[in-house]
Amino acid sequence: MIRRIQSGNWYPSTIARSGMLVLLLAANSSAAFAAGSQIKTAAAASIEAVPFGKTTAGTEVRLYHLRNAHGMTASISTYGGIVTRLTAPDRRRRFEDVVLGHDALDGYLKDNSPYFGALIGRYGNRIAKGQFSLDGRTYSLAKNNGPNSLHGGVTGFDKVVWTVADARATAEGARLTLTYVSQDGEEGFPGALSVKAIYTLTDDNSLRLDYTAMTTQTTVVNLTQHSYFNLRGKGDILSHVVQIDASRFTPVDSTLIPTGELRPVAGTPFDFLKPSTIGARIDAADEQLRFAKGYDHNWVANKPLGQLGRLATVYEPETGRVLEVLSTEPGLQFYTGNFLEGKIAGKNGIAYPFRGGFCMEPQHFPDSPNQPSFPTAVLRPAQTYTNTIIYHFTTR
Question: Is the pTM of this model over 0.85?
């Protein structure tokens, strides 16, 4: 049994019957849903909601601004659960936005938006040939990444409007709770899946994400967060210094599907046990780097399965910003923006350059539904999927 799945049931019975989600709202939090409204505590944590436009189908989207006691901010869209903005201080306590994205909703609605800041599901990363078998039945998914399925298919969790279940300042920090019910058969996945995503901006300068999910039928689940970070706030990320707490990684074939091997990082460009700049070996003569045009691989965490622990640390020398990535997940997908080509206009109309951002995506391994030796991503009825991801910011 995978440790992060525990018995329990928060899945509302009304969902199983009708697919409708019951919102559990704090009695004193309704004001947070009005445009421009704000809730504050003595600790100065606050949350504010503003309009963020409409989808092509006409559905209204809100943007929630979270702020902690030290002035750090995070902006999260109900469309895709997207982290559109995240500010962090440098060593001189100057705050700057450290994630890539767009100024307006329209940018995220375009087909070429590369999952900037998105909540990814039902299955983060790739599933080989767009299919998997479960309990003797084969399920077919959309092939939206060459021969494979990527990040939940054509309309993954990054492209739906989530429901706000709660938005308020708490003792732990400003908190936003989003919910979504993925219907049975959506994008080819079995079971009606009820998902809850809680974003908390804590006073220790962390953005914490807590995911839970339950299903009506046996299914597979792998949720993650897809922010592109640039701790310098501009340019490429090759001078960022990375340390990854993993002694092995999962090598891939030419379509970026794992071969099933857990290969030691020792003696390879994938060894980040000791800190190294991203650019030091990214263009080395290595087949794995050639397949992905850089780093776009899953590292096998050294920590016990299901235990919250550190996966990676990233340091940016010019600003002194440090990002520590913690999670309960068994793997970390480290991606270096190899498919950014200067063609996507981001915030302030600036085109993001090749390798202009990096992703640290804690998750289960790619193609786990087809790899019985990998930690299981199977979720059964009456079990609860849980996944915690923390992005903690400090300075040196």
Answer: yes
